[in-house]
Fold:
Amino acid sequence: MTSKVAFLVVVFVAIIAIPIALTPVTTATLSKAPRDIPAAVVPEAKNTKPAINCADLMSLRLAETTITAAEEIPAGTYTPPGSPPLTNLPTFCRVALTVAPQIRIEVWMPKETWNRRYRGEGGGGYAGSISYGGLATGILAGYATASTDTGHPASAGGTFALNPDGTLNNQLILDFAERSLHEMVRKAKNLITIYYGSPARYSYWNGCSTGGRQGLMAVQRFPEEYDGLVIAAPAINWDRFIPAELWPQIVMREEVGGPISAAKLNAVTNAAVAACDAEDGVVDGVINDPRKCSYDPVASVCKEGGDPATCLTTSEAEAVRKIWNGPTDREGKKRLWFGLERGASLLGLAGSAPFPIATTHFQYWIRQNPSFDWRTLAETDFEADFRESQRKFNEVIGTDDDNIQRFRKRGGKMIIWHGEADQLIFPRGTLNYYQRLLNGNGGVEHVEDFARLFMAPGVGHCAGGAGPNPAGVFEAVVNWVENDVAPDKIMASRALSGGGVRTRPLCPYPKTARWTGVGSTDDDANFVCVDGEHNPRDFRVTGPGSN
Structure:
């Protein structure tokens, strides 16, 4: 694996471990028989100090569970297993457990600073590890926090899906997709209730990428468990977007014979940004709505006097066009899934080597053949594998069910956000899902009561990019749940190279931020939310799962 590919895997798998800054929110006896505490029963907590000693939890019996550690960690620096040191932590109770067959879970509970709330922390990529950074961020803000490796080690990547005999390991696939998440929240709430002597008042979820998919899986499959969720760049539509991640490589191999240089890919991306930047009335190096950008890569084809190191050949321009348009059916006419947006880096999926998560999916999940070589695929072959992935895995891990009335009826709230320049997960997949939520649940006026989507122009996968990054999202969902204050805006900011900070409001879809024409374009106070004038056709695909 090249160092560049290894870096991209780290981006996809580990970036969600970057803690989201939180500010603290102000506002039993051991059983010998297995038991789980119903989420609906949340009496008033009498105090925030433990009812029992942390070490006593070692003797607790939970269904299909082995508790492997129950230890009080003193305040200060703690080095988790296989992880860098974490500093400035409060004293907390660390419980590690394994749910059969091999789902590892850790629950960290502040000893004296518990805010009477629970927080579940999501993973990234194929998961496979505990999010210790997320656990630390949670307890620093007073939350009893839990994380799971989803039932397999990180070293396995996506190979866990295949048994040695070539059959699918349906147990581990189910554990990764759903079961580990449900077991984590049930076991965590049980431990919380016993350790503190009362259950948490509120339960929250925080996750990006795979963590975003995990949050939506909870909303769709066990909506009673969480009161509020932050769902960022969700890896939903897993059965379709993962195969679509290989499309850029197939296209380049067929149209050009191999990868297009990074210099050329960066140049055509920059050209698209330059062409469409001002369409929102502000020149800031960001495409506000990529769906409204129609830059044709033919304009980047080499002309007389052009630099051959950065301009495109005709074949390279055709490849870029197909990458932006997304995978199509065998005839090349109907869109199967979405492509990278103009303005997003092409190096993540169209770099010098294919994205490993996508190739693993073809080898171990779709073809069930570790020796399968993706280079044998042509554009006309793609549809068959795409549909096979959908047939095999939509039900277990698609995470695209728009019937979430149980979540709405119990009063749940969720904030979804996605960067428009995401280089790994196609933003239109999230827009496709949210548009179906609107269509199937009475439109914006009803859906905005419990679910709001915020698109972040120029922001990459979970963070980064040229656009201002969202801030305070977790606090916003807590405020919505506990004080019934729905977020009309999410603030976003970005440090400027010359000093200062650019701030912008992110508006709930289908609205978008528009400069008033007065005052600095670096000040969010000079922007208002207006109708984004979206075209629903931009978010449609053909075949099963379309809208």
